[in-house]
Design brief:
The structure is a single chain. The protein is built from eleven helices and ten strands. The chain is α+β, with helices and mostly antiparallel strands and about 375 residues long. The mean pLDDT is about 95.
């Protein structure tokens, strides 16, 4: 069925993104995968092309649009291109809303122009060695020193961790507050005591720098408190639906792309003297995946529409996230199987998609956490 989510303006933007990918990303991506990090020049190029800070007001150098469909176009095209290294979605859709919705006027003028230009790359540091989805497990502390906070702790699995210039850190500012005793502090590159550890060796998304971050008596100015003191829990809950929707958007785009690749492959590849597509089992596999993708696409597009209206809640965002990412995982596995031995070869896109996409059911809240959120809401 024809999608009616986008307008002509969105499709024109899609062509801009495709041109950017062809010129600035795809010729370099294999080298970035070997290096474990993208060139900073790519971020600057994205800024010049107007791909960063789409939702940031124009007065700070951004695109000035709160239409999430432009973010959807970006996610779809980057996913289909297999360009997992340049984490523009994280920068725009996850870090950006904290700066624009919680930042003071002074903070916005200080941080957003570089954020939109690509000079200041963003990251959010929530996960710790002993705390993932459970915010109550966070041990990083920020002690009030009068005119500044003294930050101590360790974060891990931080996307953009090596390149980041602005890191939104979730830290405990009230020991007795549990999940409610957390605040958001922005730590800038070069702050004394802020150190980066290993660029972590992952099974997929090799070009995307993911790091450990260490904070040892880091002095964070009071002016770098984002939002309200001890208000991080509420701030995080308000922004998580968009983060989870963004992951779902990439997931269904990946599943659809893998299905397209596999349809072409089984038509061309022969076994027992005829194309694989002539085998009933293969046709059934394609039929099942196509149906699941069509149903999921309809729901995710509806969630995008609701989000643009301001009506997407945590339950439906969680539904979209867990269902679409689990579908992506199943489709990647089945498409690799249909490719046979070639699917296991890294030069085939299906192999890269298989490893790149495996993280989708984990970050942004695991599938199990998504189900807990949904079940708790429905049964409370």
């Amino acid at each position: 069925m024809r999608r009616d989510l986008f307008t002509a303006e969105h499709e024109a933007f899609r062509e801009t993104v495709r041109t950017f990918l062809a010129k600035e990303v795809l010729p370099h991506h294999a080298r970035w995968e070997r290096a474990g990090v993208v060139d900073r020049d790519a971020w600057l190029a994205a800024g010049r092309q107007g791909l960063l800070g789409l939702a940031v007001p124009e007065e700070y150098g951004g695109g000035g649009t709160d239409d999430f469909r432009y973010a959807v176009v970006l996610a779809e095209e980057f996913t289909r291109a297999g360009a997992s290294g340049l984490a523009i979605g994280l920068h725009n859709d996850i870090v950006g809303p904290y700066l624009t919705s919680l930042g003071s006027e002074e903070q916005k003028r200080r941080w957003l122009p570089g954020f939109c230009g690509g000079e200041s790359i963003g990251a959010i540091a929530m996960t710790e060695p002993g705390a993932g989805s459970d915010l109550q497990g966070i041990r990083t502390t920020a002690t009030d020193q009068g005119d500044h906070w003294l930050l101590n702790g360790t974060k891990t699995f931080i996307s953009n961790g090596i390149l980041a210039d602005l890191v939104v850190v979730v830290a405990r500012t009230t020991p007795e507050g549990g999940a409610r005793g957390l605040s958001l502090l922005v730590v800038e590159r070069g702050t004394p005591g802020f150190e980066r550890g290993r660029n972590l060796d992952k099974i997929g998304q090799k070009a995307q720098d993911t790091a450990e971050l260490f904070f040892s008596d880091v002095p964070v100015p009071k002016e770098n408190l984002l939002g309200t003191e001890n208000g991080a829990f509420g701030h995080l809950m308000a922004n998580l639906p968009q983060e989870r929707l963004a992951i779902a958007v990439a997931a269904i785009a990946a599943a659809e792309h893998l299905l397209e690749l596999t349809r072409t492959y089984v038509k061309e590849r022969e076994a027992f003297g005829r194309p694989l597509a002539k085998l009933q089992h293969v046709r059934f596999e394609i039929a099942e995946m196509a149906t699941e993708c069509a149903v999921t696409r309809t729901f995710v597009d509806r969630c995008v529409t609701e989000h643009n209206r301001g009506g997407l809640d945590a339950v439906h965002a969680s539904m979209a996230k867990w269902w679409a990412t689990e579908l992506q995982k199943r489709v990647a596995d089945r498409c690799l199987q249909l490719h046979g031995g070639y699917g296991y070869m890294t030069e085939y896109p299906v192999a890269k998609a298989f490893t790149d996409g495996r993280i989708q059911t984990i970050y942004g809240g695991t599938t199990e956490i998504m189900k807990e959120i949904i079940g708790r809401a429905l049964l409370s």
